[in-house]
Amino acid sequence: MTELPHSQGFVPPDELFGRSQRQADQGPSGGSGSIGGDGAQTPVSAPLNSLDRTTLFLNREQSWLWFNRRVLEEAQDDSNPLLERVKFLAISSSNLDEFFEIRVAGVMELVDAGLQGDNPDGIKPQDELARVRADAHAFHELMHRTWCDRLVPLLTSGGVPFREIRHLNPGQLKWVEAYFLKEIYPILTPLAVDPAHPFPVLLNKSLNLVVLLADPRQQRRTHRMAVVQVPRTLPRVLRLPEIDGERAYVFTADIVQANLGALFAGLEVVHSSTFRVTRDSNLDVDEMQGTDLMSSIEKELVKRRRGEPVRLEIDTGAHPDVVDRFLKAFSLELDDVYYCDGPVNLSRIMELYAIIENPDLKDPPAQPRRTVTWATADEMFLDLRDGDVLLHHPYESFATVEDFVRFAARDPKVLAIKQTIYRAGSRNPMVESLIEAAQLRKQVTAIIELKARFDEEANILWARRMEQAGVHVVYGIVGMKTHAKCTLVVRREDDGLRRYCHIGTGNYNPTTARLYTDLGLITARADLGEEVAETFNMITGYTRVPLMEHLLVAPFTLRDKLLVLIRGEIENQKAGRPAAIKAKLNNLADPAIISALYEASRAGVTVQLCVRSVCCLRPGVPGLSDNITVVSIVDRFLEHSRVYYFENAGNPLVYLSSADWMVRNLDRRVEVATPVYDPELKRRIVEEVIDMSLSDNVKARRVLPDGSSERIVRGKDEPPRRSQQALVELTSKQPEQVESPSLNPGKRKKRKKG
Fold first, then answer.
1. At what angle do helices 377-386 and 399-410 cross, to 10 degrees?
2. Residue positions annotated with a catalytic role
3. pLDDT one-digit tens code per residue, 652-706
4. Is the full-model pTM beyond 0.85?
5. Together in a domain, 501 and 583
6. How far is Cα 94 from Cα 680, in angstroms, rounded to an integer?
7. Structural domain span for residue 581
8. Which among 183, 220, 468, 524 is least buried, having the fewest CB atoms inside 10 angstroms?
């Protein structure tokens, strides 16, 4: 398996930890840059506050690139069905697009402004940009080699042959020409580029063709330039009908390229290349100055499509004159050019997954199980008063959460519903229920995050619909994103008002609920309900956050409480009491939390982490993090749940949360972590989510001290353990067939099983 090379200037830990600071500042002195198992590293024994930041923390951007490499490895994994491999390649490409739009764009802004930034690892923006460019180029090349050298031959042998236009048979060529004239030609617009026609403003990530033209009537062969955009309304992959016994798939851009002559009658097409430009997509909204947040964001969304260029992707054989002209037009450097041996936009090969219906090329469908069903609102609320409900998505159906809101919306006894909305998606039955509740004259409040990246437009549309229906729409706290996942229902019952609430780790989005692993707790506990209500009041009004006994709320108490809990494990370890820390996260990048975990490791506390994406902690460094292990799982579902576990001297504490351990989550977002008190549910979370993830030896990778990762190698007699597959298999059984208590609440006989 090809490995990403270390970027110039990167100091691998096995070199750094045994060298002086002066040597470290000079960069690597050779060697492979990998962490060996020969024990040659010099243990780190100095106090943390005396160590160089590069020693303590991995670079966030490079850590993210290692994560995306794990995604790409799934496209290279022969054990995955073929179209699943295509899907993972498309995801890795889409991930890389967003990385450039947000992260690389941010670093480039710092470099252009001459600012130093505030990286925990101490790397300056100029050096960081050079490293990221080097690694991104290597990754970009590896993606295209994966497509051309691995997947295309396999697709051809699997009955999905991709063809260049020039390799089609005569019948296919005739069909393609007719298709072009009928379906494509009428919507194309050639754009000349000359002194009278300035270089067009190309939309972010739009697919285009650049054309060099010559006039055969002129003796001097000067080239004219034109640009043709491939409309986004067209499919990127086209399946040709079977002609003369042959099948074929072609890229629409190739069809346009083969027929450019029809757009430039009387001119000779000398050269053409496909290309696209990636632009800075960060929103620049001054909430303190703006009087209308929604209008301000709408204006920024228009700008996003035409933000500053940060990357140029273009065919490998692009004419040098074209590249030079583009660099000047886009104010880019040569290092910002990414040559493509194959389709320029690999993320669009995801269309194959939809148009090819062969089930043998895909994972077997996984049907979420209904562990709880309610016939009426009275039955639901009675059941919830009897005990908490824990849901593990996508293995257990998200429809239960939708039922919770739908029944509440229609129940005459319900007086008020409040919900946070981060990524609602384009279709959302739950938001429709909120609208219905408002129309039924209930007090409905929706805290909708307009700044949810790349979901702003959908959230604005929902906000307008809800406001028109009478929902009280709030946009959260100025300067912060509301990332918490909470729903509160207030109901009048015989003994007075009672609160019911749902607290989750994932978005209220029915689409992602089928694709992401998340946890949700539905509870009628009065103490949790009261604190969820206080959290809503804090967000919607000027109420200061009260002291809470149960919920941990960022940016007010979550960070401090986490540090207290970590210190508690250190004290327990020193006193000889049971001590351990386990966590499942999307990202780990907060310097204070990482430093506290290092101190815990030095004290002898076992720290086991499952971190899907960015991990700035260096695990397994002698004297620093000997007792810390980090694994990362990339599988058919995106690992999205956040769970914290503290041994607490034998009385474990378990929290579900919307928050990763990052500066932005702990300091600049409203987040909620809820404790789980029910012993059975707590055991389920530990066994089913944490321990099962940590024991995965099929799709898990072990993160190494330099940020890279390696697949976990099973022992000769060790059975394979694929955590997601194990849960899918449990889901496929009926509740009465499940021998393991996991995924089977089954605590109360009156609860109906679906």
1. 120
2. 483
3. 999 999 999 999 999 999 999 999 999 999 999 999 999 999 999 999 999 999 9
4. yes
5. no
6. 40
7. 552-711
8. 220
